[in-house]
Design a protein that fits this description.
Layout: E1 3-8, H1 14-24, H2 32-41, E2 45-51, E3 54-59, E4 62-64, H3 84-88, E5 97-100, H4 107-114, E6 118-123, H5 126-139, H6 146-149, E7 152-156, H7 159-164, E8 172-175, H8 189-195, H9 205-214, E9 219-225, E10 238-241, E11 245-251
Parallel strand pairs: 1-2, 5-6, 5-8, 6-7, 8-9
Antiparallel strand pairs: 2-3, 3-4, 9-11, 10-11
């Protein structure tokens, strides 16, 4: 199992670091700069770093911090209309509400929010949820994307449980469970290598799908590798195919 520790450098949010340590049980290393470097060199450890730039994840010789600025090129100058996910989630509903039940670092949720949805992002892993919240916090300070990220809200916890107990109406539920034997398509480079140390392939596909249905959405959209079987073996109403992935769409 990967060891996880916390370090705080100058300018880092010490109160948030202590709160996160209390919640997770991850230790805060003494002598932040030295301890952080030591954690990075330990091949079996990850380090949650709090510094003046926000929160990042380091380890295995790598460092990652969420940044929605990198998504800007996909949603401006008419490019959003060409996004497969935008086509899969298109709606005429005013002020639509969505749930991304497998949020990860929120790139797909960002696309959905750019389409006008108010999106609740479910994330069970506390480190990933923290990184996601920090990326949203910083994104709200960027004039060009602040309106989009302001429609994104993180809910930490198990999606099966949250969806099963949801009472508020929802128009869309989006699912992108990690698939055994493949790299989650929304994660690339440093993020892939670091976050996959903590995230596991989905082992509750039937329960996840049943919970999504129980929430009563108008549509469920599932992201899959192009040649992968249907999630939980359930045939969609239709699919949108790309070169490497497809979106299976279930309407109700």
């Amino acid at each position: 199992m990967t060891n996880i520790a916390i370090s705080v450098k100058k300018g880092g949010d010490e109160a948030l670091a202590k709160s996160f340590s209390h919640k997770t049980g991850f230790p805060i290393l003494d002598g932040s700069d030295t301890a952080s470097s030591q954690a990075d060199r330990n091949k079996d450890s990850l380090n949650v770093l709090f510094d003046k730039s926000g929160v990042s994840l380091t380890g295995y010789g790598l460092s990652y911090q969420g940044d929605f600025d990198e998504m800007l090129r996909r949603v401006t100058e008419g490019r959003l209309l060409h996004e497969m996910l935008a086509k899969a989630t298109k709606t005429d509903i005013q002020n639509p509400v969505a749930i991304d039940a497998t949020a990860g670092m929120g790139e797909d949720a960002f696309i959905i929010a750019a389409c006008g949805y108010d999106v609740t992002l479910h994330e069970q892993n506390p480190v990933v949820a923290l990184l996601l919240k920090d990326a949203i916090r910083r994104g709200k300070k960027q004039p060009i994307i602040k309106d989009i990220v302001s429609r994104m809200h993180v809910m930490e916890g198990d999606s099966v449980e949250i969806l099963s107990n949801r009472l508020d109406p929802v128009d869309l539920i989006y699912l992108d469970p990690m698939f055994p034997g493949r790299k989650k398509s929304g994660l690339i480079g440093k993020k892939l290598q670091l976050i996959q140390k903590m995230e596991s392939p989905c082992s509750v596909e039937d329960a996840l799908f049943d919970a999504a249905i129980s929430a009563g959405p108008s549509k469920i959209v599932v992201k899959r590798p192009l040649k992968a079987p249907f999630l939980a073996g359930r045939k969609p109403n239709y699919s949108l195919d790309g070169k490497a992935i497809r979106y299976d769409c279930y309407t109700y």
